[in-house]
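Title: Prediction job returns without error message
Component: structure pipeline
Severity: low
Priority: P3
Assignee: unassigned

Description:
Job completed but the reporter wants confirmation the result is attached to the right record. Sequence as submitted:
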Amino acid sequence: MTTTATFTELLRSPKEVLSHIDEGDIVVTRRGQEDLVVSKASSHRNDRHGLRLASALIAASLGDGDFIERLHGPFPWLTFLTRTEQEQFAKEVVDVARGCAAVGHFGRLGVVMSAWEATAAAVAEGIPADGSDLIYLDAPVAAERP
């Protein structure tokens, strides 16, 4: 959600105007001049990171041959995932990038990319991706020290 305030309101009551920052960006209107946007630094960083990722996806889509193989350029960690997982990654990341572009916020794309990269890192460390190393208990066990 975007909040709108005049520049005069910001100068007179900065705490009140900025109290809306957790709801989204604040558009500060100025008479006879271009509006300003006040946003959290984390939102700005997430959007810039997401745009870089989206740019890498677009660049990878503009070549000849297999799209999945071209994704290995910007995302070399894909090597540790199976072909099926790479296809799942490609579908999910393209869908999320489109959704992020539609709403104008790219933070979610960074979250999805981080999750896939963490999965690849775990596989590279020898952790089975299929969960075959997990032990399932028949009954709950109380922890000594949570």
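Comment from assignee: result matches the submitted record. Strands lie at 3-6, 26-30, 33-38.
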